[in-house]
Please model this.
Amino acid sequence: MIMNNIIGSFSFPLEKKGIMEEFRKIANREGINQSRLLVSLVEKYVKEHSDGNPSFTIDQFQDPSFQAVPAYYSDQQKWVNHYKNSNDRDRTNLRVKAMNIQKWFRMVDINP
Model:
């Protein structure tokens, strides 16, 4: 059987040894391959952050048209919290943007 894997490694500070041991215990208890779990966590991170770092610079907040929103692939709870904490105008803008995205996707599906 030929394995198509790349072998990699990572380091962590000594003070994080306990959390890494706990990770191993939990993965073993749940019967999850540690390498696969780490790869899935990396995939999730890349998916959520591929458009850039989620932090904003202070000067961006000086621009009146600047709107900070969760990354597109953020989990549902982040979007729900963002929506709940938005004012009426921003909620309307979010709904309009979501409808427009849906329309764009439909147009692509109709005219591939």
